[in-house]
Structures are given as structure tokens and as C-alpha cells.
Amino acid sequence: MGVQERKEREREAMAARILDAAYALVSEAGADALSIRDLAARIEYSPRTIYLYYRDKDAVLDAVRKRGYDELADALAAAAAGAAEPKARLRLLGRAYLAFAAERTSLYALMCLRLPPVVRPDAERAEVSGDCEFRSFAVLESAVADYFAGDGEAADRIRSLCFALWGMVHGLASIALYGQDIDFGKVDVAAEFERAFDVLLPGAGKRSGRARG
To answer: Closest Cα to residue 159, out of 174, 142, 172?
Structure first.
């Protein structure tokens, strides 16, 4: 291994170490509690070291946010593998999304309730990881396309159902997190999902020539 390659690996290892520590801090106490000083203390380096790898606190949070979406995509892909029949697969995807949000509330709040870098005027576009959210959405889109298989549905209608399903679980997850502040504290989010899901996707799963029921 050459000197340059070794230095690059060491740099990547330190960046990963910082990200691991930031991920843990956000998971424990939320994004608002993260500070460069606490992050430096966690890895036992000076705050100055952090700035060698990340521009500022926002850049660190953006990296944690991306990791969260990568993990959500993995969770959804695992859920999708649990059923071959399209409607059943879509139901599992909704449940997996809600479970992810419920089990990782601080991380989910950072992912979904904080402005992403692409719409923040102060964010540097060069550092934006553009597809971290879309890998999760692609898992849903594939399942919806299978649900409509054989019906000749236009791509825009498939896309519309994707947005309806994603918006539904995102809204329910947000109610579960913050509903107590707006008189939704007693909402049974899991039950509401099951009812709303059956309204959006009535009948049996595959919408080809098979009978529904």
C-alpha cells in the first residue's frame, strides 16, 4: 500500500468514526442536542479535528440524515422480501416504515422533519447526497408497479399511489411523534394505518385478471 492510499484510508476511517459518534449522539438525544464540542469529546479529539472532515454541524447532521435514509431503505427492502403478493407486500412496507419511525424517533425526526440540504439556502450543493431518500421510495414504487401489473396503468397513476401511500405513513408517523401536542395523543396509529390502507387499496392484492376478495 502506498503512502497516499494509506492516508486516504486513514482519512475515511476518521470520517466514519466521527459519523458513528454523531449518529449515536443524535439517536440518544436528538439533533438539537448535537454539538461539535460534544462530538469531539465522544471521539476524544479536539473540535478542530471535526472541521477537517465536516464543514460545520449542518454537514454532520446531513451525513447522519443520509445514513438514516440508507437504513430505512434497507428496512423497507427487508420488509418487501416478506411477501410475494403485491398488496401484502405494500402493507408490510407501511408497517415497516411506521416501526422504523417508532423505534428510532430522534433519527426519524432528523430525517423527515428537518429541511433537507437541497432546499436550505445555506447548504452547499456539492455536498448534497441527492438520492438517499429516493432509494427508499424506489422500494415502494416497485411494489406499487407490481400491484398494478396487467392493468396497463399509466406511470403517473402509479406515481400518484406511491405519493399517497408515502404521505399516509409519513403523516401517521409524525402524529405518533408529535400528536400529543395537537390533540392526537390517543390516536392508534397502527390501527389507523390498517384502515386507511384498505381504503386506498381495496380488495385482494394482485390487480390482474384474478378475482378480488
So the answer is: 142
**In contact, 69 and 104? CB cutoff 8 Å:** no
pLDDT tens digit sequence for 48-106 = 999 999 999 999 999 999 999 999 999 999 999 999 999 999 999 999 999 999 999 99
The model's pTM is 0.84
How sure is the predictor about 130, in pLDDT bands with cuts at 50, 70 and 90?
Answer: low
Q: How many domains does the chain have?
A: 2
Q: CATH no. for residue 77?
A: 1.10.357.10
50 CB neighbour count, 10 Å cutoff: 23
Angstrom distance (rounded) from CA 202 to CA 16: 45
Residues 117, 205 share a domain: yes
